[in-house]
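Exercise 7. Given the components listed, write out the predicted structure of the assembled complex. Treat all entries as one system.
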Amino acid sequence: MTRYLLKRLAFAALTIFAALTVNFILFRALPGDAVSGLKCRQCTPEFKEAQRAALGLDQSLWQQYVLYLKGLLHGDLGNSWRPPHPTVWSQLWDPIKRTLPMILLGTVFSVVIGVSLGLLAAWRRGSMLDRTATGMSLAAYSMPTQWLALLMVLYLAGWLGLPTSGVKDPDLEIAQLLGDVGWWELFIDQLRHMILPALAIGIVFAGDYAIITRSALVETLSEDYVLTARAKGLSRWTVIRRHALPNAALPIVTLMALSLGTVVGGVLVVEYVFSYSGIGLTVVQAISERDYPVLQGAFLLLTVAVVFANLFADLLYPKLDPRVVLR
Amino acid sequence: MKKTTRLAGAALALASVLAACGGSDGGSSGGGGSTTTAPGGEGSNTTIGGDVTPTGVLKVGTINGIDSLNPYNYVEASSYNAMLMIFPMLVQYKAGSDEFEGDLASSWEVSADGKEYTFTLNPGTWSDGTPITAADAAWTINTTVKFADDATAVSAGAVSHVVEATAPSADTLVITYDAAVSNVLPQLQTLFILPQHAWEPIVGADGAGLKTYAPQEQLPIVSGGAYTIEKWEKDGTTVFKANTDFYGPKSNVEAIALVLYTNEDALLADLKAGEVDWADEVPIAAATALQAEASVVVEEVPGSQTNNITWNSNPKKKKNRELLDPKVKRAMSMAIDREGLIEVVYGGHAVTVESMVGHISGSWENANLGPLAMDVDAANAALDELGYLAGSDGVRVVPATDDQPEHKMSYEVMVPDSLNFNGKRQFELVADNMKAIGVDLKLLSGGDATAAFAYETGADCDAAAGTGYADFDIAMWDWVGYRDPDFMLSVTTKAQWCSWSDSGYDNPAYDTLYEQQATLIDVAERKKVVDEMQQIIYDDVAYTQLVNMNMIHAYRSGWTGFQLDLNGYSKRYYTDVRPAG
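Answer.
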């Protein structure tokens, strides 16, 4: 187990190193840089060169790369290139605090909706219910996230009375300035703002969960021990709950870990549609500003999150299925 | 300013751009006359100048966020507008006019030689209780001049040609110029007066502190305008609280919440639902649908944005050098159905325009240019006459010359992705038009504004060395002009290579005229030179102007007092807005 863990940790470190190297090269392949974007009328070529020097852009790519790695080894993600050049960490912390609960809620939505649909489909395999649930799952699975998010903005938000943008009600912002606002009111408001973005992510990824759940359950339900359980006179629901579902959990947990990377991709577009100032919106803005340090920092954190989620899933397998042995 | 650069940092722009903008010098006469304008004297708001009891909260939805409240270091246009609301300025534009009225200044006089401006200031106080004096204004101007090559470069245009500013008394400010300047008031209209006691300690020896200072991170900021900002979020909501001690026309509402939307559809949905009261910029594609909403008022005025075809005009461009010939460009332009574009791409919310100085500049626009009429037969005849005959595939062929081999008239057209209109559809229509004259156009997606500009200038752009603008042929983009034509005229000067120039246009005679117009204080004389410059650009076809877009905004019907033309030009843009009835 220890050897396996060390091996996996080394592999994770290698993956992260490769990802941060690719990110470093990739962002710099974009045309223009942070200074060429500053089309200040009064900015002389000398001024622009001074800006480049201040940002380290006058150094060779190799030098910039070495400096970047040195900084990382000291736990320093660098400073944003956008004035007044705050630390990257300070630029990412607030967005992360907003995105994490939203992703979490979205994952809850997708697991609840997806597993329920998959369960229903497997339970009534071959019936109209199965065909409907499978059809809905496939539709959700193939739906572009941003398109679904836009439909929600246009048709669902008004109907549900939920906000379509931001993370806090402007009325509440003003109320906070003019008087006291309770934490409960703030909490409920923030929850209301994250429901639609989370639902957009939830629905799209629910398709994935539904298909996997159905497939795993159908396979499990054909096992001998399920037949034995039925023969013992257990109800269909009890059979599914006690015997089939726990054994079908392995692919679902795998999917939860694997889908983190895809969820992050979905977050980029969903946050943009809902003006939700999380990590996705920060990345989009950093791209348009050629703010490489912020981009590198954001993608490094996302890479670390995905790599460790996968590692966590690996380590969880033996707990879920004693047949799995880590070597 | 390239409209689409607003997210990419282009617009350190608005300050520097507006520094060069504005109409005539309002009431100031270059001959040494004097003008006195009381603040609020010409306003349309009945509450102006009186005791206002601000009521209600105005929620403004915008697609342009506030990134900084430091006048020397900001990017977004909304930042400029926010600073305009919280900091005093000497003068501001009057509503519906190219003339000026006082903001902090109650009156001003110009010396006989046009080199000295004396301003009398209104009494006012900063938000921390310190009096606003002429010393604050003098310090701001002198500091901006002192570090104009570096730390204060963004605002340097506002103090162009200034020798020094002095404060003989608390309410008297004297600004001395090294020459008579044609657009002093338009320049000063962009200069934010800062509280000396709050800003002087952060300057540092080389002025570096002016660039790194982030007052938005240390709220409440010391301000003296119509509002104070006590809540700011880069990607969220900024709250403007009415300043009840403001020296000028006070706000009609208690507070304004400026809410950032990254998605225009969400903004419009919230406007319809009453979640926001005002959308300060409505996309053209949504305007018609929004007009059907009973509870929403949609207004449009001739806008400042002109959309064009940009021709690479660098005489040293490497390939397809026939595109340097104005006859070729003129013939191709004659094939374009601009009325069709207005109908299909802009839904009727645009008009034709001929000069690079668009309709926003009013009488500064040369009315004698064009009009460029669609005439496919004449276009074909012109290209035939040049010897560019159609090949077997219908595409014309340019015969070999000393500087290039024989080749087809087939060109890539760069269209940026980050446009506020359907640029791809516009390209398709223009490409269809061009087929009729045997010219093949291919779409090249330009990416965001920074990438698109980098494509135009080339990676090796160096104005001093004369390199850059070597590879691209044609682009379809836009410009946002201003009331004073100075900025738009500047973008085709050699001095703007690698900075604002998107065409690589290089004409020393034109550059000389540009310098000349900047110091002609007689409006008629300046107009003559400005007209001549527009004629040169038109004749050389550095641009083919396609349309002048309308500026559209929308608000809930329970509100009134909106003055769309004052966006970025006056505090009244916010202060005059009030609940209807």
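Discussion: Residues 3-50 of chain B have pLDDT under 50 and may be disordered. Chain B is about 25% helix and 20% strand.
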